UniProtKB/TrEMBL annotation:
The chain crosses the membrane at residues 12-33, 39-58. It holds the Pfam family DUF58. The keyword Transmembrane applies. This is DUF58 domain-containing protein. Keywords: Membrane, Transmembrane, Transmembrane helix. InterPro entries: DUF58. Residues 204-370 form the DUF58 domain. The keyword Transcription regulation does not apply.
Length: 443
């Protein structure tokens, strides 16, 4: 039974069988062809037997394995490696079908290779998940054929493997490495000139070329008879809270990812960056009620807590309750903090309903409201209308786009900082705003 399950006949087998059958039919009318037909059929049977024996004579004649990370990164390209090893004593043709999770809706994970005797090879391909959760990988199906090519033998490896998809830790690590190597400008992070100094004095030290001459301490200079400067350090241990709206407005998808997933990925990067700079990072998620609160901290293990919390967040398609958000923040956050609110306002009326609560938050904390441009409207805004319906649609699109700008202006008038950004640039624009606040000494 095992032999039958793993045996597959190729197109070449059926083509040869049909050719023999046709030759026998023709030989019925032309008897002289009967002997060549029998000879050809005998050769066909012999080659088929040789092919079967060569493929099935060795029990473990091939090996394959899938190499991948223990968890995948949402919204990022994740590398999958398939290792192939030919243990036959002859060259084989290999067809590889990897059973990838159904969430990708891909049926083309098919690879064709040729491996010589004892040869190994690695196949690489990329997967980009757009939803968090558990992904089930199936088996690696290997179909082996010899140079004769009349039959194939199937091997199955790695049968069933569940892999979790977490918020984009690949993106987080990328920003972290670029920050360490001072290359953040390559991805749009601006160098922002520091205005003034932190109020936290550290020490008086000898002047070295490159120190800010405005920090010269003239009294200490007179006592030491050499230039001395005041040394300041950045204020640390400030609290940064990423507040993620999980209401129905955040379910809107752009390039496969929902606004909620964009916000979760940006929150992870921002929290990690804040902790690197010595600040404390916390997370609050809410919709019709407060879903989860993770107190701000900066311990190394805290990043893993953030990752685990963000992994399970889902929209519930309900209206977000900003009143309960305000009440929870007033109750649980006593120290003045930076609140980065990831939400989405599609109309001025929708924003004005929440404006009283945003004003109250801004009174006690430094509030940054981050919401999204509708990039799907860009093509419509740039198009030339050809009929009345096109004019109507373009007019509506322009109104939506203009309303977003008016929302920014109105929030700024009430002392609320804003970032209006395309979803694809959310992380960069949010980080730039955080660094701007740090440079201005606002937090």
């Amino acid at each position: 039974m095992r032999f039958i399950k793993d045996l597959y006949l190729s197109n070449r087998f059926f083509a040869a069988l049909i050719a023999c059958g046709l030759l026998f039919v023709i030989a019925f009318f032309i008897p002289v062809l009967f002997i060549p037909a029998k000879l050809l059929f005998a050769i066909f049977i012999l080659l088929t037997a040789i092919d079967f024996i060569s493929l099935f004579s060795i029990k473990e004649a091939f090996f394959s394995r899938r190499f991948m990370a223990e968890k995948l990164s949402n919204g990022s390209e994740n590398e999958i490696i398939l290792y192939l090893e030919n243990k036959y004593n002859f060259s084989v043709n290999v067809k590889v079908i990897d059973e990838i999770p159904h969430q990708f809706q891909k049926r083309d994970a098919l690879f064709k290779e040729s491996l010589k005797k004892g040869q190994t090879k690695k196949l690489k391909y990329l997967l980009r998940p757009v939803k968090r959760g558990e992904y089930e990988f199936g088996a690696i199906n290997i179909f082996i054929s010899s140079i004769i090519g009349l039959a194939r033998r199937r091997f199955r490896f790695e049968q069933g493997k569940t892999v979790p998809v977490y918020p984009s830790f690949i993106q987080m690590r990328k920003y972290e490495l670029l920050a360490i190597s001072n290359r953040l400008q390559e991805i749009g992070i601006k160098r922002i000139r520091r205005i003034g100094h932190s109020s936290e004095f550290e020490q008086i030290k000898a002047y070295v070329p490159g120190d800010d001459t405005r920090t010269i301490n003239w009294k200490a200079t007179a006592r030491k008879s050499s230039l001395m400067v005041n040394n300041y350090q950045d204020e640390k241990s400030q609290q940064v809270y990423c507040i993620i709206d999980k209401g129905r407005a955040m379910k809107m998808p752009f390039e496969g990812l929902s606004l909620l997933d964009y916000s979760i990925n940006a929150s992870l990067v921002l929290a990690n960056s804040a902790m690197i700079k010595g600040d404390k990072a916390g997370i609050i998620t809410f919709s019709s009620r407060i879903s989860s609160v993770l107190k701000a901290d900066k311990k190394p293990v805290h990043l893993q807590h953030i990752l685990e919390l963000l992994y399970n967040q889902r929209t519930n398609y309900q209206e977000s309750d900003y009143e309960s958000l305000f009440a929870n923040i007033r109750l649980n956050i006593n120290q003045r903090s930076l609140l980065v609110l990831f939400t989405n306002f599609e109309s001025r009326a929708g924003m004005r309903r929440q404006l009283p609560y945003l004003q109250r938050l801004a009174k006690h904390h430094l509030l940054l409201v981050v919401f999204f441009e509708n990039t799907e409207l860009e093509e419509l805004l740039d198009s030339k209308p050809e009929n009345t319906e096109d004019i109507y649609l373009k007019t509506i699109a322009e109104k939506f786009s203009y309303d977003k700008k008016l929302i920014v202006k109105e929030l700024n008038q009430h002392g609320i900082h804003t970032v209006l950004t395309p979803p694809s640039k959310l992380t960069v624009n949010t980080l730039n705003k955080y660094l701007e606040f740090k440079s201005r000494g606002l937090i």
